[in-house]
Amino acid sequence: MTPTVPDVLVAASRVAGLPWEGARPVRIAENQTWRLPGAVVARINQPGQNQAATGEVEAARWLAEHQVPVVRPLDIDQPVIADGHPVTFWEHIPGPHTPGSPRDLALTLRHLHRLPRPPFPVRPLDPFIRVRERLDTATTLPAPDRAWLTGLLDDLRAQWADRPPGGPETTVHGDAWPGNIIRTPTGVRVIDLERFSLGPPEWDLASTAVRTFTTGATSRAEYAEFTTAYGFDVTESDGYPLLAAARELRMVTYAAQHASADPRWRDQAQHRVDCLRGRRGPRPWTWRGIL
User: Fold this and answer.
1) Are residues 218 and 259 in the same domain?
2) How many CB atoms lie within 10 A of CB 260?
């Protein structure tokens, strides 16, 4: 069956002067990604994310100028706002491509974290952005679990305001995991700059550490390659327990949000909550990826 192209994408494509007939979904998640005719990829953000979409386009253009291998936005005025959704348009990267390795990610982050501050406004890192909204939609979780997660969010926010000192603020990717570094026949490319911001570099590094020591998705050997390539092990920093807790909460609420719309993820969402609440033994836990 041919998938129905969303009205939002049709409207935005018309404004941008791009063909949309025959568009195909690439990924339907919190944001939607569609492949358009003519080697173009469209990204549909959630309503209210205009600033994030604008920042993503600006960041990609600036990073390309600084020799960071990023996916490039089309040279048009964007984002395009359609029915409240900011929509951006990007070059299609010919395949085949696969997720980058932890070493690929480390080398990219080392480059990114050494860049000067951009000449355009960049928002400060908010580790808890959209977490409360996700909890509001987590209708499959029992009320006591939702209340506990809300309390954890409030506690972590308070800790973040008084967190241990770390490295000097830098540009950070904001969602730095191997799935956002793709390997192509011509090298690696950085994608998904929605959370590009200014903040402690440890935030980007903590993601791979959490995938190793919390979820088990990354092996110890891969983590050793990651820390060697970057030149620093974030788990040795005083702030790591807080960074890890914030990352874990994001991963739990992401699953809970998807479970409310797709019953396939209900068991995984509850499993993640049970892990945080001490019902599944010590870390590392086995968490399945949410598609």
Assistant:
1) yes
2) 17
